[in-house]
Amino acid sequence: MYQKVCMENVAIVLHDTRIPENIGAAARAAANMGVGQVILSAPRNFDMERVLKVATHSASGLVEAMTVCNTLPEALGTFNWIVGTTARLGGTRRVNFSPADLATKLIPISSENRVAVLFGPEDRGLTNEDLQLCHDLVNIPAAGFSSLNLAQAVMVISYELFKARTREPKFYIPRLACRYELENMYEELQDTFNRIHYINHENPEQRLDKTRSFLSRYQLRSREVSLIRGFCRQVARYGEKCYQDGVTAGAAGGKKTQETR
User: Fold this and answer.
1) Are both 226 and 120 inside the same structural domain?
2) Are 126 and 17 members of one domain?
3) Which domain holds residue 157?
């Protein structure tokens, strides 16, 4: 029996779009491939009438059910696995997958988890900061000019997800930690790094970026995120206890010195 991507658990997230017609065309492409949801993050010049005109009747239901969020973290908060799209390569943009390989990976993940495929604005794509919120990166190979039209890119990814099949024995991937849970964990890790002076204060983001990159390789579950956060809280408690013990010892030492005079 073939296994497929659960398209109902897949959402296309369009961040910082500039042209309403591009939203409509992207939604039409997503609807054609059975994508479950389209989410807009901080859209500019949003005009539902212009969006629907391009989406046509076939995608009107998907468009009318769109969620519009003010920020990218808000748009991605409830998703368990996030894939960022990028045309630019190199540096910190270590692309994990081609569209076909990505689709194969998402077959077991999508059965029990909500998956977001994130696309950036038409003129410049996603920033490095945006991509920090992603577990995987995907690049669409192209000859010559590497940047595709937004709707074209949505169609390529959605098509690969729709047609992906595998005969491999199914292995179970349970519900993973959502973006909100992960971001709270990273905040506590950063606070812990600061407390134990594990961060280069001239470039404080470098250590956390490497930590994000490392932990994103693993499919962290909610209980594993809770375990890491519990460790951070215990480090904070221990550090506070050591500080208070030092203050008490210092005060006692000062008092003893005065008494022996």
Assistant:
1) no
2) yes
3) 7-163
What is the SS3 assignment for 85?
strand
pTM for the model: 0.82
**196: Cβ–Cβ under 8 A, 6 or more apart, which residues?**
235, 239
Residues 24 and 59 in one domain: yes
Give the C-alpha separation, 62 to 33, whole Å: 12
Residue 231 lies in a domain: yes
CB neighbours of 208 closer than 8 A, spacing ≥ 6? 186, 189, 190, 193, 199
Do 108 and 34 reside in the same domain of the chain?
Answer: yes
Residue pLDDT tens, the chain, 261 long = 789 999 999 999 999 999 999 999 999 999 999 999 999 999 998 999 999 999 988 899 999 999 999 999 999 999 999 999 998 776 666 767 899 999 999 999 999 999 999 999 998 899 989 999 999 999 998 886 667 899 999 999 999 999 998 876 566 788 999 999 999 999 999 888 888 888 777 776 777 888 888 888 888 999 999 999 999 999 888 888 887 877 676 666 655 555 555
Query: Is residue 171 a part of any domain in this protein?
Result: no
Phi, psi of 125 (to 5 degrees): 75, -170
100 Cβ partners below 8 Å, 6+ apart? 160, 164
Phi, psi of 241 (to 5 degrees): -65, -45
**Does residue 187 share a domain with residue 93?**
no
- Whether 170 is in a domain gets the answer no
Report if residue 2 sits inside a domain.
no
